């Protein structure tokens, strides 16, 4: 077992030992090995702020930007929406695969250099995209961008939040993930303005440079991997405040400190419920976001469509912040079900009603749910699989869920090219959201301490 993985387990075991001594009225006979919390301010909130900044850039240039540059790329090169959408599909598939590969490395070594290399990769990809003249170059540029995007997205950032917070994880994650929405609010209008004023060739390198300028300093000088690095406890607790009822702490310790391999996670119902539900939901969500400007510009014009995107992003900020105030007290499955229901209803309404007021209202409601779905996915993973393997399991689920996000835009583009309308595509995506609402109910945490079947002897290193 890697050294830092052992350190995580020792950290939680030490906390359990200290709290057990307090509850029983005894004192430890030896010096505790857990970090000592001093009076310095809790550094976790600085990590949240840095994570917000990283996700601001990640979403703005790595997620929302696809909808902004779709039509300019199409007009510049004369390619179909299906062609450009297929490049976006490659982007999300590649991001999912790379997220799977980097998850365990983040658990072992931390996210600092992953973030640095990721920002350089996505910046280089944008520069390449500004120089393309052929279709294969389009795919190559999106491939490079995808590798960078997966390194600066929710896998490293939500892993950091999970390291620094346990009891207030939902609230902290809602604050950090607000950066995802702020990127849409600020960078979508900025990118649209720069493209109109200076052209696509000048706008793309500027967007790429922005990622490096913001993310690299945050990764090198602000982000710390875990509280123990600064002799602090998660949530800013002290030894006195960390003592809770033995049953509750035992449950937290059992879940948070268990190390899951990918094979073990795959043997649980919770894993496949998470994968299936969020694959279906994200397929529709990402497809709508990628084609949102193209869809709305027919009724609202380019400026109105860009405004609607900002409304969507602003609504997602509201959704995250409001939900973050009480999500830690709720069953995360029910929260996800409510988000899927509202998302499906919003997309279905937009497909069949094109009045200006309804279009703006529908995008607002869609944004309320969009701001919470990815956050709730991370919270459910944390509840089911704990802290020690959070990035590993998150990256592994992303291998599947990002595939749904990948093929949604292509499906929408193909249906649009065939029918000249988004109505059929949006109807399909609404139906998928309803199915996801049912499936996520089965994402229950495996029983603490339950042994996972090992029929081929994976733990012992030899078949049996």
Can you walk me through this structure?
With 464 residues, the chain is mainly α. The protein has one domain (40-227, 246-442): Up-down Bundle (Growth Hormone, Chain: A). Helix content is 76%, strand content 0%. It is built from 16 helices and no strands. Helix 3 (65-77) crosses helix 12 (269-324) and helix 8 (169-198) runs antiparallel to helix 9 (200-222).
- One letter per element, helices H and strands E, the order comes to HHHHHHHHHHHHHHHH
**CA-CA gap between termini:** 21 Å
CATH class wording = Mainly Alpha
Q: How large is the share of residues in beta strands?
A: under 5%
- Decide which structural class fits the backbone: mainly alpha
Instruction: Specify the overall morphology.
Output: globular
Number of helices, where a helix is a run of at least 4 consecutive DSSP H or I residues: 16
Q: What summary fits the major beta sheet?
A: none
Just name the CATH architecture: Up-down Bundle
User: What name does CATH use for the topology?
Assistant: Growth Hormone, Chain: A
Number of strands: 0
| Poorly predicted tracts of residues | 1-34, 240-251, 450-464
Provide the number of structural domains: 1
Kindly state the mean pLDDT as a whole number? 83
Query: What gyration radius follows from the Cα positions, in whole Å?
Result: 22 Å
Helix content bin: over 70%
The CATH superfamily title = MFS general substrate transporter like domains
């Amino acid at each position: 077992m890697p050294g830092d993985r052992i350190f995580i387990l020792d950290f939680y075991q030490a906390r359990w030992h200290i709290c057990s001594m307090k509850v029983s009225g005894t004192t430890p006979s030896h010096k505790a090995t857990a970090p000592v919390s001093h009076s310095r301010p809790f550094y976790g909130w600085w990590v949240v702020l840095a994570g917000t900044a990283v996700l601001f850039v990640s979403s703005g240039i790595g997620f929302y930007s696809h909808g902004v540059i779709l039509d300019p790329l199409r007009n510049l090169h004369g390619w179909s929406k299906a062609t450009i959408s297929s490049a976006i599909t490659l982007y999300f598939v590649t991001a999912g695969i790379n997220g799977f590969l980097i998850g365990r490395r983040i658990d072992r070594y931390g996210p600092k250099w992953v973030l640095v290399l990721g920002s350089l990769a996505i910046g280089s990809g944008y520069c390449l995209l500004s120089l393309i003249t052929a279709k294969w170059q389009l795919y190559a540029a999106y491939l490079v961008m995808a590798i960078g995007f997966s390194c600066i997205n929710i896998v490293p950032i939500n892993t950091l939040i999970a390291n620094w917070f346990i009891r207030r994880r939902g609230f902290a994650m809602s604050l950090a993930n607000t950066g995802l929405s702020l990127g849409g609010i600020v960078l979508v209008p900025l990118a649209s303005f720069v493209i109109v004023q200076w052209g696509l060739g000048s706008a793309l390198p500027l967007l790429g440079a922005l990622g490096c300028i913001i993310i690299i300093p945050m990764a090198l000088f602000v982000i710390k991997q875990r509280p123990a690095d600064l002799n602090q406890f998660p949530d800013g607790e002290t030894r006195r405040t960390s003592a809770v009822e033995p049953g509750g702490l035992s449950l937290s310790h059992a879940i948070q400190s268990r190390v899951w391999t990918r094979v073990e996670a795959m043997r649980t119902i919770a894993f496949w419920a998470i994968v299936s539900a969020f694959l279906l939901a994200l397929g529709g969500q990402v497809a709508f976001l990628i084609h949102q400007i193209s869809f709305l510009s027919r009724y609202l014009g380019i400026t109105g469509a860009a405004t609607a995107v900002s409304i969507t992003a602003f609504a997602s900020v509201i959704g995250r912040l409001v939900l973050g105030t009480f999500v830690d007290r709720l069953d995360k499955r029910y929260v996800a079900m409510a988000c899927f229901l509202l998302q499906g209803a919003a997309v279905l309404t937009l497909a069949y009603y094109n009045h200006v007021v309804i279009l703006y209202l529908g995008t607002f409601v869609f944004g309320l749910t969009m701001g919470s779905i990815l956050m709730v996915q991370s919270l459910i993973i944390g509840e089911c699989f704990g802290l020690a393997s959070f990035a590993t399991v998150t990256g592994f689920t992303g291998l599947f869920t990002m595939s749904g996000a990948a093929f949604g835009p292509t499906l929408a583009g193909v249906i649009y090219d065939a029918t000249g309308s988004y109505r059929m595509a949006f109807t399909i995506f609404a139906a998928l959201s309803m199915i996801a609402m049912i499936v996520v109910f089965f994402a229950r945490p495996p029983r603490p301490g339950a042994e996972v079947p090992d029929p081929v002897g994976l733990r012992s290193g030899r078949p049996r």
